[in-house]
Amino acid sequence: MVTFGDTGLKVAVVGCGHGMLDTIYATLEVECATKGWAQIDLDLLIICGDFQAVRNELDLNCMSVPKHYRKLGDFHKYYSGAAQAPVLTLVIGGNHEASNYHFELYHGGWLAPNIYYLGAAGVVRYGPWRIAGVSGIYNTRSYGKPHGERLPYDRDSVRSAYHVREYDVQRLLHLRSPVDIALSHDWPAWVELFGDHDDFYKTKPHFFASALADRLGSKPAAELLSHLRPTYWFSGHMHTRFAATVNFHDGLGMEDALQRLDNVPEKLRAVLPRVPRSKKPPTPPASTATKTEFLALDKVGSNPTFQWLEVRNLDHPPHADSPDAAPYLDRTEAGKYSLHYDEEWLAVTRACAPGLNIADPVTLVVAPSTARKVPAASVDKHRRWVKANIVDKKLLQIPFNFAPHAPVYSPGSEVDQNQQPLEYPNQQTAQFYDLLQIPNRFAVSSPADASGEGGSASEVGMDR
Ligand SMILES: [Zn+2]
């Protein structure tokens, strides 16, 4: 038997998934062999968005892709049970997703057996590893808005559904203890300046134009990078492999790190954020780490394989032996760790829950969402609740509560490319709210629910 505790974490990371799960798992087998591992030795596969959890043809209509480019992909087989994910797979969302399915699992959950979605924002534990992620891409116009998109999506909401929201980023900014791995689909803004940007801008001149216009990358992701300072940060989206190391100085954040770079193109320096000398970060960073290793990867299938797939053995994090990690270290029979909820994240989620608003499914009316003003003392109070009601009761392990409830794909079925699916309230989300003992914002009552027939599809989407 392979021992994992002593040898670190065997991780595979993919940039954009683009629905090609069969290719990913087949290639993993080959890549692992080059390291003398079997695929089964891998602890974790991470996919940095554009995962495309398309269960059926109606889900495909919820993805923001021109009609003639829409492809069902491989995921439906993993959803129906026709195929099995051979490696525990952790994903975030990008800008090409079945947004309706991700909305059901706003707080995260199993998309299929062994495939876990982190949610709009989320933090999980895998053994001593603490992994945080934010889904979607940054768009200035949507950022401050609440989640106002409900089925059926129109031309606008099918696009805005995957935009990053300030509410979700603010929740991650409430974290006060270190994260080992962070994930975003689009890159943190300015991160390319910490790598070989000359070559990057030369081979991709349109990205340089975007950088000059101050439109390249995600500013919220940059703010999170500055706050969390994880050991590793992985991204997709730009369809290229790119590595960088962000060095933090004297506890100061990314803005300061940017100002210290001496090889920034002169034209670009003018648009970099300025740090007033007296300004201190508003809240202390979640980590005192002095550097973050950033790696972006390409989309599945690009050549050669190392452009889109990274297979690595990562050393255990420094806090692996701390009492804080103890509740997460149980092993499965196969000697692996399993995914757990994160104590601090559950407390943040609970503390910020009253500020979360989503659109009424019929009127689409939605109040603003806010998490910014939640005081640290409130998170502390909720953490005491989480400790007493979840940690001490040994309820931190994420239950394997996946059950298919949307129709599985059936070949030959006739579906109009404009038709939208019903809304399916997800029982995993309901169970998550039960765990936290707070009201379920995503509950949808409907005639189908009441009758108990044909799963729990909501009629609401169809009525409008
Ligand atoms: Zn992509």
From TrEMBL:
Query: What biological-process terms (Gene Ontology) are attached?
Result: mRNA splicing, via spliceosome
Chief localization class? Answer: nucleus
Q: Where in the cell is it found?
A: Nucleus
The prosthetic group or cofactor this protein requires is:
Mn(2+); Fe(2+); Zn(2+)
Q: One MF term from GO for this chain?
A: metal ion binding
Recorded hits in Pfam families, A to Z, give: DBR1, Metallophos
Q: Where is this region: Disordered?
A: 445-464
The lineage's top-level taxon is Eukaryota
The name under which this protein is listed is: Lariat debranching enzyme, C-terminal domain-containing protein
**Organism listed in the record:** Lasiosphaeria ovina
